[in-house]
Amino acid sequence: MPVRSDTFREGAVGVCHGPRCRDYGGSALAGLLQAQGFLCERIPCQSLCSYSPVARVNGIAVLRASMQKLAGTSV
Fold first, then answer.
1. pLDDT, mean of residues 60-73
2. 40 DSSP β-pair partners
3. Number of Cβ atoms within 10 Å of the Cβ of 48
4. What residues pair up with 62 in beta bridges, in sequence order?
5. Which end of the chain is more exposed for a tag (fewer CB within 10 A), N or C?
6. How far apart are CA 27 and CA 48, in angstroms?
């Protein structure tokens, strides 16, 4: 069952900026998303550190998020 969160604006991609996600590419991923024109928000630690970096699209967690994985979601 997907983990859900409604803490960010609809249509935004939330990128976890907890310490591990940030260190494992979360900051870079957020930068790439913004550079390509996506609405991107920094979200607090999602407690999914083993799967970092973590993003949320439409409230659903994308584990080990990358541009390739996000391209396959409904962003």
1. 89
2. 13
3. 17
4. 55
5. N
6. 16
